[in-house]
Amino acid sequence: MYKVIGAVKSRAFRVLWALEEMGQSYEHIPAAPRSDDAKSYNPSGKIPSLVDGDEVLTDSMAILTYLADKHGQLTAPAGTPARARQDAITFWLIDEFDAILWAAAKHSFVLPEDKRMPAIKDVLKEEFAASAAQLSARLDGPFLAGNSLTVPDILACHCLNWAVGAGFPRVDEKLFNYGKALRQRPAFQAVAAR
Fold first, then answer.
1. What is the DSSP letter of 75?
2. Which CA distances in Å does 78 have to 20, 40, 69, 89, 183?
3. Nearest to residue 190, comparing CAs of 13, 31, 4?
4. Contact by Cβ (8 Å): 13, 63
5. Distance separating alpha carbons of residues 178 and 160, to the nearest angstrom
6. Of 3, 18, 67, 140, which is least packed with CB atoms within 10 Å of its CB?
7. Are 93 and 155 in contact (CB under 8 A)?
8. DSSP sequence for 85-114
C-alpha cells in the first residue's frame, strides 16, 4: 500500500486524485509543509512525498509520472509519440501554470514578509490569463492528450482550482467547463471530500 504525505490543500491533491483514479490503496498522512511529519519523509519539508515500500519519492509531477508508468494508467506508453505529446503539454503546464501560481503564492504567504513583492502578482495574473487563453485554444476534446484522462489533465485542473483560490481572473467558458467536468469525476470528489 502506498503512503501519501501532504495536506489535501496542496500539490498532494494531485497524487491522491491519481491514486483514486487508478483504484490503488493508500494511506494518507495530511502533513503540512515544513512540518516534522513532512520532514521525516523529505528533509526539505516539501510536500507531497510518496512512500512505495522502501522508496520515498518527492515532487508531485515525478510521483504522478512514476505511478502512471508503473500502473499503465493515466498515460500514453513511454517511448511513443503520444507520450511525447503528453509530456510536452505537461511540461508546458508546469512552466505556464504551476510556476506562475507558485510565484504568486511565494509573494503572498511563503516568503518572509520583508522579501515579498505584492505588486508582482498583477503581472503574474496577466501571464496566467494569457496562458489560460493558449490552453483553451489547444483544448479540442474532453481531455488534453487524447481520449482519456491523463497526467496533464490532473495538473491542469489542480492549477485551475488553485488559480480560483488565489483570486486569479476567471478563465473563458471553454476552459471553465473543462475544469468543471474534471471536478465532477468521482475520484476528484473523493479527494475533495477529505
1. S
2. 22, 32, 8, 15, 27
3. 13
4. no
5. 10
6. 140
7. yes
8. HHHHHHHHHIIIIIHHHHHHHIIIIIS-GG
Please report the pLDDT score of residue 110 as a whole number: 85
Handedness of CA 63, 40, 30, 109 (dihedral sign): negative
Provide the β-strand partners of residue 55: 52
Sign of the CA dihedral with 135 first, then 178, 20, and 3 last: positive
How far apart (Å, rounded) are the C-alpha atoms in residues 41 and 184?
A: 32
User: From CA 22, how far away is CA 14, in angstroms rounded?
Assistant: 12
Measured CA to CA in angstroms, residue 25 lies from 3, 42, 62, 78 at distances of 9, 22, 19, 24
Would the pTM of this model clear 0.90, i.e. be above it? yes
Largest distance between two CA atoms of the chain: 48
Identify the CA nearest to 25 among candidates 9, 49, 2.
Answer: 2
Kindly report, residue by residue over 113-150, the tens digit of the pLDDT.
999 998 999 999 999 999 999 999 999 999 999 899 99
Amino acid at 73: Q
* Residue range 25-38, pLDDT digits in tens: 999 999 999 999 99
Asked which of 59-68, 87-96, 109-118, 129-138 is least confident by mean pLDDT, the reply is 109-118
pLDDT at residue 2 above 90? yes
